[in-house]
Records
---
Amino acid sequence: MDEALLAEYRASTYLVCLDKVQWPAIVLDQSLPPPLQALVGEHPWAFITAWNPGSVRRPGAPNEAAQRRLLQELEGDAHTAAVLPAIGIGPTGWHEPSLFVVGPTFAAFDALGAAHGQNAYVRGRGCSRASVHVLLP
């Protein structure tokens, strides 16, 4: 992944929907906000999407279908403890519906991200610092 795209990932806002009014933000290189720490415990977590594989915009219908498949795959993983709706908002105004997922291993998240053509995703374990994990060079 080139440096400009990586910089966009780093400058993006990552919001998780806990309920209608609570949307805590994941900030790279910082611990999760307390409400998310309470949900995560010591488990691995990921902020992941199936939208716009390879960071190439595509129409809504294929993105929505891919996101439904990703959600089904996550719900089928016995390690999944929680899945919450989320949204990533880029510095230039783009946005992608996403999922905040607790429980699966990093290897499982990597496999899902790669299977859905994602360049990278945000991840962490417990209250460790959030980081961008690059999948595709």
Note: Residues 3-134 form one domain.
---
Amino acid sequence: MEFSTGVRNMRPLPGRMADLEAGEHLLLWSLRRWLCGLMDDAPGHWRIVEREFTGRYGAEPGRQLLVGLVRMIALLQSHAERKIVYHRPCCPCVGEDEAALISYIAACQDGDWPAARAGAAGLVAEAGIGDLLETGVRLADQLRNRGAHLPRRAAPVRSGEPVTIH
């Protein structure tokens, strides 16, 4: 995987879950769990994510964070022009699309609007960019307000190579 180098002092995104910061890990883990619940018709995954959020942040703040995550997923589902690839929750790898999502939310957290818009544009069609940005900013703020800061990392450059789900 290659990384863009447009901004100084950005760290490359690790290729493994174990190398992610806590906020990045929480975001990606919960995204994977929620998507597995959708794809496998297994709502138990959703309850696991809800318990993690409410146990970590309290009932109402945890539910607000969950609403932001679910809204982002719904926007990705309705506006993506291609399949967005993710790994199963137990996979130790971080894929290109997963890296793009993490980088996108980090840009929203830092108020880097050109990077956030570019990240959103890499995930959804033009018609969905505004809604995804609005939702990304809310989710990024909710994560930051709960102490989950996502470090700025170089966004992956899609290589055109096939990506597999592990």
Note: The chain has a mean pLDDT of 88.
---
Amino acid sequence: MSAAGRVVCLVVAATVALSCRHAPPQAAPPPPAAPPAEGQSKYTFLFDPANPALSLPADTRFDRPRPIDTKTLPVYPARALADRFGPHREVVRIVIDKDGKVAEVHDSPLGASDKDAYSEEFRRSVDAAVRTWTFTPGSLRKVEPGTDLDGDGKPDYVITKSWERVAVYYDVRFTFEIVEGQGVVRREP
């Protein structure tokens, strides 16, 4: 084979070798980012055995405020959620005014809120949520016995003689937790 032929064969061999070369391995794609943590909230009302409505005279009825709209629930504070911090408990006393709106939020005498690095953020979240809640107004009614219609010796109804709206308080407990990587606020029994 001539020198020119050898050069052509070498060029062809080099071209074939280069074309058969495998592509360099590519780096594996990064794992998908973890979804952002989310939180949800629930609450429970606490019973206060010292409530003055429990010792009213026989001719007075107390009508408790009933929740109309308590859909706005506390948001798990972003910084605490990002740090996966929990559990945390907040216990507050809300004062419902004569119009059924939450007028005040205080510490509850029925339980202590936790004290930790995120206490202020948890409390702000609870305050913001409960201040949007609305209730039927609480009221006191002066009543007198009605007629005994069925002859059993007891009145079958009461007659309301006067009625007055009153401010009322409720104590509410929230517990914030991280469960399976999620920030949640659990309702306590």
Note: The chain has one domain: 39-186.
---
Amino acid sequence: MHIFHSMYHAEEGWLAATNELLMMHIDYQSRRPAPWREETMRRLDALATAHKALPKPEKAGRVIGIRRKP
């Protein structure tokens, strides 16, 4: 999951801070990436749908991916 936050001054409107996060679910038993739980995935899908029409933040970085071996 890729999250980008922007915080603006409440009265003057200038950009005060940004925060960019990359998150993934890790299974504590295997210590490896694992699928999100069904309820969590349902909520993430709802958020993604709600935010789909928003423009990508100009300062947001690239998405990190793991290349699969052939």
Note: The radius of gyration is 16 Å.
